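Lab notes, practical 5.
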Amino acid sequence: MRKRRFVDLSISIEPDLPSDPPMMIPKIDYVSHEQGSEQMKEFFPGVAADQLPAGLGWALEFLTLTTHSGTHLDAPYHYHPTMDRGKPSLTIDEIPLEWCMSDGVVLDFRHKADGERITVGDLEKELARIEYEIKPLDIVLIQTGADGAWGTPQYLVKGAGMDRESTLFLTSKGVKVVGIDAWSWDRPLPFLAKEFKEKSDPKVIWEAHFAGIEIGYCHMEKMANLSAIGRPFGFTVCCFPTKIKRASAGWVRPVAIIEEG
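Output from the prediction step:
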């Protein structure tokens, strides 16, 4: 009998971690069971604490965060108001569900240096190595190894990143959802800023994201555990985002499903 294995490809949303710019670090206010018992008195006037199990009520949390906190799926609207050469960009609540569950493929670029471009040639070489041909609606996951630095300030500058041409290489083949185990689908922002300062070439700014203006696509950022999949292809990825009206992104818990046995 075949067995099915599930691999969680997400990180947890946690407060106070220096792995985001300061303005984006999530805050979580935890309401304890003791505090919850007091809140319940507002909904059940006259109830006494000793009438609740062990005198305790509900627990809940208040979160302050962006739609780009934790593992998330960026919608084309995040990159620009238009996609597909002039059409209105899709927001996260408009993303077709069929984009978000499909065959997955992992492309391993852990050998590349932090801040280095992942080029079309790199993609072609890796696809030849694993003997795989990209097809429409494949969910392509880029492995950089940056997730090993999650929870530290170094995370913001770890990993190689995609460029405009390598992004269009995938989307021109009908790929609609991709993902990366780093902070950004592009190279880390400090590397982009340094190159822009040196060359004064605006084409370097957010080049992989801005590729979505030409061909609309979604990408997941801050993924993790890609090595736990254990194979470069032959698995399914599910990555349905939280539905937030007119938003540029939604939190997601991507899962790889592997049939074994």
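Observations recorded by the TA: The chain is about 15% helix and 25% strand. Residues 27-64 form one domain.
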